[in-house]
Amino acid sequence: MKKIILLSALAFVQVAQAKSIELPADTVLWRPSDLPGYQLTLQKCSTCHSAHYAEYQPPNTGVGYWNAQVLRMKNVFKAPITDEEVPVIVDYLNKTYGPNRK
Fold this sequence. Notes:
The chain has helices at 2-16, 36-44, 52-55, 63-75, 86-97. It is mostly helical. α2 packs across α5 (86-97) and α4 (63-75) packs across α5. The relative contact order is 0.16. The model has no long low-confidence stretch (mean pLDDT 87).
């Protein structure tokens, strides 16, 4: 009986040990801008994801699309974005990654 308990304890210890992973370097950065939404995006959005999400959206995405995405991040994923910050971030995303992107 003691052997079973000892073997069970050893198996548990091996399973419970933390695993470490190394993530690849983030190579997609937010496009710099003088718009106030750029700094907010760096502060609020970068905590969860890189600019990869915005960079690879279809180029015809308009203000409605970006507004829906920012509200989704805020309301569904609980991003730390205030109601007042939403239009500022949306403006940056729309002008930087929307149909008029450069």
